Amino acid sequence: MPETAGTALAARDRGLVWHPYAPLDGPEPYAVERACGVRLSLAAPDGETFEAVDAMASWWCAVHGYRHPALDAAAHEQVDRFSHVMFGGLTHEPAVSLAERLTAVAPGPMAHVFYADSGSVSVEVALKLSLQYQAAQGRPGRQRFLTVRGGYHGDTFAAMSVCDPVDGMHSAFPGALARQVFAPRPPAARLLVSPEGEERWETDESALEAWTVAVDELAATHSDELAAIIVEPVLQGAGGMHVYHPDCLRELRRVADEHGLLLVVDEIATGFGRTGRLFASEWAGVSPDVICVGKALTGGYLTLAAVLTTRHVGDAITRSEFRALLHGPTFMANPLACAVANASLSLVEQGWKDDVPRVGRLLQEHLLPAADLPAVADVRTLGAVGVVQLGSPVDVAAVTRAALRRGVWLRPFRDLVYTMPPYVCTDDDVRTIADAIVGAVWEVHG
């Protein structure tokens, strides 16, 4: 095929730009030529072009699709005022409005907001906050964190330390990471929804009981050195798209209360409707002490995250030796990002209660045939999340290309071919995504 602008761009990229978890001399990437609605216009390294539904929502953040008029308008309006000012000693309307809205919709009595640059940084802030909180309570020796296997919280150093120590993509740095306390991965669970819409969680009760005992024993053993518990609620993301029973989160809340720990929930991937609740913590009906949010916060337009916490925690920090939360990013509360986030929240509030269950029902129905494929070990869905787990590692390049030929952009990893699509996908878009996943897995893996 003749060289196109896309193939030339891919060639210029290769060896110059690092991509996530990819070598400099790895496969040339697909070039994005346009993104609009839920579709990407892509050029392959060999010159072939594709129009594809983005089944990944750009790693789960572009929940409203691309070039949404409301988000475009919010960005243009704020650019015409000012794009950025420092947050030290200054404030502005987009940041205050967004904080008011976040504390109003968050699960539990959240009263304070700290803005961060990214999800990983928000986890760093939450962990630092937990240490400062314990010191303010007269327990400065509490310097470690309890979490569960299978978790993923980001790629910065403190965040890496609470990711799965074996399967968390960070095994190259064992000597540099703080040693945390890891409970077993919570037992798998499924949400069953009847035709009438009744919801019921199902799990192995004996496994759940054994897990509860293990968590209790770990917390009791390490109580005097633990500052907080940190987990992804109900759905673990990049650690394996693992779904677990809300009772596990209730157990962690009980353990935190019993031992004087903060409960930190990482809602970066699960917040803003993705799992079928506005926040995944709501499945358990628990009130966290600290919440991290990001990804869908700006609808994928700009990088922004936030740490929310209760008045009790905020008061403890204010009474502490330093009186402040000891963090301060240059782009903290970037006005442009906050303005777009306000517009994104409005869109989420208008549509997620209808869109997420609709997308979920279609994924559940149309991914089901994958369960009959010999290569498939499991098929599971939760909210607007659909997962096909293989019995062996995915041939990422081949499955990606096979899906593109069926009109869908996927980014499989490990043994997972999955989708977390934009909420605004039409019914036909969702069917196309599910059919492409099933067809690509069958074509490549059988």
Shape: globular
> N- to C-terminal separation?
30 Å
Main beta-sheet annotation: 7 strands, mixed
Treating each run of at least 4 consecutive H or I residues as one helix, how many helices? 12
Our Rg estimate from Cα atoms comes to 22 Å
Helix proportion range:
25-40%
Q: Average pLDDT across residues?
A: 96
List low-pLDDT spans. none
Q: What is the tally of beta strands?
A: 18
Strand proportion, as a percent range, falls in: 15-25%
Oligomer: single chain
Q: Based on helices, strands and strand pairing, what is the structural class?
A: alpha/beta
Cross-sheet strand order for the largest sheet: 4-14-13-12-9-5-6
Q: Could you spell the SSE succession in H and E letters? A: HEEEHHHEHEHEEEHEEEHEEEHHEEHEEH
Subcellular location: Cytoplasm
Protein name: Adenosylmethionine-8-amino-7-oxononanoate aminotransferase
Organism: Terrabacter terrigena
Modified residues (N6-(pyridoxal phosphate)lysine): 295
Describe this protein's structure:
Helices cover 37% and strands 19% of the residues. The protein has 446 residues and is α/β, with parallel strands linked by helices. The chain has a seven-stranded mixed sheet with strand order 4-14-13-12-9-5-6, with helices on both faces. It has a four-stranded mixed sheet with strand order 1-2-3-17. α4 (93-105) packs parallel to α10 (335-367), α7 packs parallel to α8 and α11 crosses α12. The longest helix is centred in the C-terminal third of the chain and has 33 residues, at 335-367. It is globular. The model has no long low-confidence stretch (mean pLDDT 96). Pyridoxal 5'-phosphate binds at residues 119-120, 266, 329-330.
